[in-house]
Design brief:
The chain has one domain: Jelly Rolls. About 10% of the residues lie in helices and about 50% in strands. Strand 5 and strand 6 form a beta hairpin. It starts with a helix and ends with a strand. It comes from Symbiopectobacterium purcellii.
Length: about 140
């Protein structure tokens, strides 16, 4: 919990201070029970209250996901919009790979466990979060 608080404190000022604006979203994650299958998070998009419009463009996206339990080295995670997907490593970070896309873009995390068959211990992605800066 302490780790989340520290990241939240770091992400919020970045989302507000850079560019013309920013928005953030979080959702409950998914439970991965099988290898060789693609799993998607719920969509992450700005709410009407957060504003932004399609004329604004993304400058940077900060992301975070939390794995409950043992991390599986075969886990591959991507952050995606309709236009593109980017491989992400580790539980948090930032990317400029979505630079220039509309600030109102919808994001999803996609997960893939290498191999085949049911996993011995399901991997619980507890929460996914993004903060999007735009200009």
């Amino acid at each position: 919990m302490k780790r989340f608080s520290v990241l939240a404190v770091l992400l919020v000022p970045l989302a507000v201070s850079a560019g013309q604006g920013g928005w953030n979203a979080s959702k409950t994650g998914v439970t991965l029970t099988y290898r060789g299958q693609l799993f998607n998070s719920a969509p992450l998009a700005p709410t009407p209250v957060q504003g932004g419009n399609p004329q604004n463009s993304i400058t940077v996206v900060y992301w975070r996901y939390t794995v409950d339990g043992i991390y599986d080295p075969g886990l591959r995670v991507k952050l995606c919009t309709v236009q593109r997907c980017v491989d992400i490593e580790g539980g948090s970070g930032a990317t400029q790979a979505f630079r220039g896309l509309p600030a109102t873009s919808e994001f999803r995390f996609t997960y893939f466990l290498e191999g085949k068959g049911r996993v011995y211990r399901p991997i619980d992605i507890r929460q996914v979060e993004i903060a999007v800066n735009y200009e």
